[in-house]
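Give me structure tokens for this 503-residue protein.
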Amino acid sequence: MNKKLENLKKEYESIHPSEEFRQKINTILEQSQAIQQQNNKVFQKQKRYFGILAAGFAVLAVGFIGTLNVSPAFAATVSELPGMNHIVNVLTFHKYEFSQDNMQAEVVTPEITGLSNKELEEALNKEFQQYSNKIIEKFEKDVQSLQSAFPDSDPHMGVFSSYEVKTNTEDYLALDIFVTNIAGSSSDIHKYYTIDKHTNSLVTLSDLFQPDADYVTPISQYIAEQMRRQNASGENFYWIDYEDVPEWNFKSINENQNFYINETGNIVICFDEYEVGPGSSGSPCFEIPQQVVADILKTNIPATQSNASDTKTISQNATELSEDELKQKLTEDFHQYGQKIIENFEKDIAALLPADSQSAPHMGIISNYTVKTNTEDYLSIQLYTASTVGTFSMQKYYTIDKHTNTLVVLSDLFQSGTDYLTPINQYITEQMRRQNASGENVYWIDYQEVPEWNFKSINENQNFYINETGNIVICFDKYEVGPGSSGSPCFEIPQQVVANILK
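Here you go.
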């Protein structure tokens, strides 16, 4: 047996769990080799799905990342090669499962591989294992207590713990380990880890700022503003200015508040369920625009400049409308959009149900809207239509500049005559290849079986919106750039990708 597995077995035995739990761990350890072999088979299936590529970067990338995922030792070796220190991965080391009547548990333990700082890597992986051990121990004790206290009843209880890689770029690896407890109601607890790949260190929130800088106040003020805005719009509900129970009101983040750094270099502040609002508010996170903390950030922190003001200037060719004129124009457009959907649906019903038909085919159309952004600068609305049998979905986005009362098209955001398609296409292509290689999603890129399906370029007036941090988000309909399982993907474009051509 592999030494690492043997050491883990000793750690599990040292906490004196139940015999059933001990047997489960032994089974997990005995099956570890089989799991790795199964991962190899899955990887081979993924390769076949993308077709046999003769000799291209796509095969090299998929094969290389696949090898990292099934071979931690290889990943560790690669990380020591010059220029390859950013190849860091998170693997599922083992999974504990329990199911008996209405009591269930699933605890997934991650393992980080590829850090050149092996001391940090070992310490983190040990912490992950100990965290899982505590969850399992407590669950088993609770099961025994419930069975003893209610021998004739069938109590409900569940614990689910897993992880999500939030960011994995050249600069940072961010990991969210979460636990959901279910007993009547449910609650979620999150624990975030952010690793700087350049310094091979675990980053705390204070590490991102200049010494003695007050980062708590501006971040807290921005979050309070967002909470009030979301409360007013009905987007969510937070305990802010809450007179019924004033002591619940959000006042400030902690100095070491849960956070991570996202792919565009912005800090994202996170709260657990019930920390700043009722259970219906979930476990909310707030992305902090760079300009909120720009003057106190350390200069050596890799971060993108997310200046919403860069995208405020609209084309001089755009027609400025009064508020009433804009409302009327949009209302007419929305009405026509809805009418077309209804007309097409009624025609389809007539075609599917002739007068003498005895069958009852399944068919449904759902059309609704979502407010994507509603800030001082922009209102972005998504209209979407989907078939209830999953055969199609389509979207239409509207972005309105509140300062000029104009409807914004993609070309309006860029300097006249500039090529904005190429840099955006290049960035989206990179993201598609990265997600294909990691298994995060599947896109038609470097797809040799049907080359004409491959993503080549966005349209000049591609679906888009501007998010709350001022970044452009490019969106595609279902089946536009990938199979149905890929959904309707959107790609947030970091400011630095188009900074030199933005107005």
